Every structure is written in C-alpha cells, then in structure tokens.
C-alpha cells in the first residue's frame, strides 16, 4: 500500500504510557501515525523505535495551544493529559487546560478535517462511586473542589464538549471511559499502585499501602485496553463506553501478589489514605461486551508477570533512581 493511501491518524499523548502502545497498534495495522506530545509526563524512549519508520511522524507540541496538521486526517485519538494523581496534583492547571482547551482544539481540528475523534475519558468521572460496579448510566459522585477535581472535572467537561460537537456539528465522536490500566512503559515514579509496588519489591524495599489496604481496584492489562479502544474507534457507538477489567481485588491483595510474583521478601507498611481516594472501582463492561464483542483476555497473573519482566529489563540505575 502506498503511504498516501494509508489511513492517517493523529495520536495526542503519543509519548505516554497508553499513547505509545496505541502508536504501536496503529502502525501494526498499517496506518500512517502522527504522534504529538509536549513531554510533560511522557518520555520519547517509549516511541524511539518508531522514529525510523516512514509511516510515523512526531511533533513536540502542547495541544492546549492551537493545533495544526498538514494534509488529510481520518482519525484523532486524544490521549494527552496527565493521568496519575501525582502528576495532576503537581500540574493542576495544565491538566484542566488539556482536558478543556486541548479537547476543544482537537474537536475543531477533527471538524475541519472531517475526521472521527475518540477522546480518552476515565473512570474518575464516577468519582467515589456510590454504586458498584459502575455502568455508563451512573452519573458519578465527584467533589469538584477536592484535589482530584482538576482531573475529574476536566474529563467531565471533555465528555460534555465532545457530545456538543457531535450534536451541533454532526462530528463523528467516540468516548472511552478507561479504568485503571497497567503494563510495560508505566513510570516507576508515577505514584500509581502497581509500578510503585513492583519498583519497591524489585529494590528490596517495603511496599507502601495507603489506608488499611481494603479499598478495591480492578486492573486492565494494556493490550486488552488497546484492543477495546481500537474496536470502539471503528464502531458506530457515540455514547461513552467503559473499558476495564472487572476482576476486583483489594490493594493489600495486589501488594501480596506482587511480593509473591517477584519472589522477593518485602514487608507491607501502611500510610494515611490520600484525600478523596475512591474506596471502590469496578467497571460494568456489558456495553463493551455487547457492542464491541470485547472482554479482557490477559489474566492478572500473566499481565503482572509481563509487567514485572519489563521493569526487571530496565537498567539497574533506572530502577534505583526511579528514572523510567
Ligand atoms: P501518561 O502520563 O503516560 O501519558 C499522557 C501523555 O500526554 C504524556 O506523554 C504527556 O507528556 C502528554 N501530555 C500531557 N499534556 C499534554 C499537552 N498539553 N499537550 C501535549 N501532550 C500532553 O498517561 P497515560 O496513563 O498514558 O494516560 C493517557 C490518557 O488516558 C490520559 O488522557 C488519561 O487521562 C487517560 N486514562 C488513563 C488511565 C490509565 O490507567 N493509564 C485511566 C484512565 C484514563
């Protein structure tokens, strides 16, 4: 296939965890991929292997500012946004801007190019949920002025703006509500439970559990998440769809499992729970199942083993300094 015949897709947040895996997937599907990222939480090492390819381009750019792309565009995946609490608490205004102004810029770009756009929303739109599991019909329980409000409300605004562009301009839009996803290329110092626990275990440190560890989480392996996003983009469904793994476990159980799978002998220590930390998170995935014929395929053990192998493959200095 000639380059000009390939489908052209813009992926924002391309140097991040999910964005880089999405770049890999769309390259594997023979798309022409245009990556964009301002590297505020991303890392070019995640996409360095793509730079030599003729069907990959990369632009270092802040999408909260005007975004221009030359030539045709068929699809846009808007994944640029700080995603871990440690990041969005450090850069709350940039987080609000990329969810609002950034989304507006990309919706405008999609409209001008006649492209279909999929935006990355989050299970955080459900806040600290009062029902479990959370289906797409649940409106959520978010504290707008709490510390996490900057992320949750940016994403809620993003969804509202995306629906408005669909309703007013007839734009082809998709909204994925991503639940906790993990795998290779997560950052050792991003504050999320899994990379933190794995890094601590591999360094022979104690594992730090917040609260009493009875809060639950469900973790989706990255290849399952990417498959769900891929199917949703190519589907004709406009309203939000949850993609996540409903296999729920307590944070303490996760810590114990990681100690076992790494073969280390770390102890678990307990620290105060952060403000507004959700007590429970579990996706209802009936919609994804029915509309996209999607269910997670990678077991937690397999996913954790692959993730541990990735962190073990990093240079010892990176593991020690949490610099990857
Ligand atoms: P990440 O921090 O690894 O990646 C985000 C990327 O966006 C980074 O490379 C960062 O540099 C880039 N970015 C941030 N602001 C930008 C801006 N203004 N302009 C250009 N680039 C910018 O995070 P991730 O885990 O890969 O998350 C990607 C997306 O998925 C985010 O929108 C996030 O809200 C969403 N999401 C992720 C999860 C998860 O479990 N990983 C869960 C729910 C939602």
TrEMBL record:
<dbReference type="InterPro" id="IPR036291">
    <property type="entry name" value="NAD(P)-bd_dom_sf"/>
</dbReference>
<dbReference type="InterPro" id="IPR044516">
    <property type="entry name" value="UXS-like"/>
</dbReference>
<protein>
    <submittedName>
        <fullName>UDP-glucuronic acid decarboxylase family protein</fullName>
        <ecNumber>4.1.1.35</ecNumber>
    </submittedName>
</protein>
<keyword id="KW-0520">NAD</keyword>
<dbReference type="InterPro" id="IPR001509">
    <property type="entry name" value="Epimerase_deHydtase"/>
</dbReference>
<keyword id="KW-0456">Lyase</keyword>
<keyword id="KW-0210">Decarboxylase</keyword>
<feature type="domain" description="NAD-dependent epimerase/dehydratase">
    <location>
        <begin position="9"/>
        <end position="235"/>
    </location>
</feature>
<dbReference type="GO" id="GO:0048040">
    <property type="term" value="F:UDP-glucuronate decarboxylase activity"/>
</dbReference>
<dbReference type="Pfam" id="PF01370">
    <property type="entry name" value="Epimerase"/>
</dbReference>
């Amino acid at each position: 296939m000639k380059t000009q015949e390939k489908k052209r897709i813009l992926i924002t947040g391309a140097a991040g965890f999910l964005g880089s895996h999405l770049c890999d997937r769309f390259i594997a599907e023979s798309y022409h991929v245009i990556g964009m990222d301002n590297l505020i939480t991303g890392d070019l090492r995640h996409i360095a292997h793509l730079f030599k390819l003729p069907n990959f381009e990369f632009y270092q750019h802040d999408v909260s500012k005007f975004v221009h792309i030359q030539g045709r565009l068929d699809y846009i995946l808007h994944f640029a946004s700080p995603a871990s609490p440690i990041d969005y608490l450090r850069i709350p205004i940039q987080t609000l801007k990329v969810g609002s102004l950034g989304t507006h810029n990309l919706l405008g770009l999609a409209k001008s190019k006649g492209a279909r756009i999929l935006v990355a929303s989050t299970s955080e739109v459900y806040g600290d949920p009062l029902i479990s599991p959370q289906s797409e019909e649940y409106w959520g329980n978010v504290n707008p002025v709490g510390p996490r409000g900057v992320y949750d409300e940016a994403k809620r605004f993003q969804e509202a703006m995306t629906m408005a562009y669909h309703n007013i301009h007839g734009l082809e839009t998709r909204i994925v509500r991503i639940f906790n996803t993990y795998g290779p290329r997560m950052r050792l110092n991003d504050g999320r439970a899994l990379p933190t626990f794995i890094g601590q275990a591999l360094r022979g440190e104690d594992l730090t559990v917040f609260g009493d560890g009875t809060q639950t989480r469900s973790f989706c392996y990255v290849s399952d998440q990417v498959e769900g996003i891929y199917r949703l983009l190519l589907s004709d469904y406009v309203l939000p769809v949850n993609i996540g793994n409903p296999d729920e476990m307590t944070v303490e159980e996760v810590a114990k499992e990681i100690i076992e799978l790494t073969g280390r002998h770390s102890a678990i220590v307990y620290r105060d729970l952060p403000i507004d930390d959700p007590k429970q998170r579990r996706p209802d995935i009936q919609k994804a199942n029915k509309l996209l014929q999607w269910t997670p395929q990678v077991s937690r053990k397999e996913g954790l083993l692959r993730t541990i192998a990735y962190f073990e493959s990093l240079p010892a200095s990176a593991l020690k300094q949490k610099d990857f």
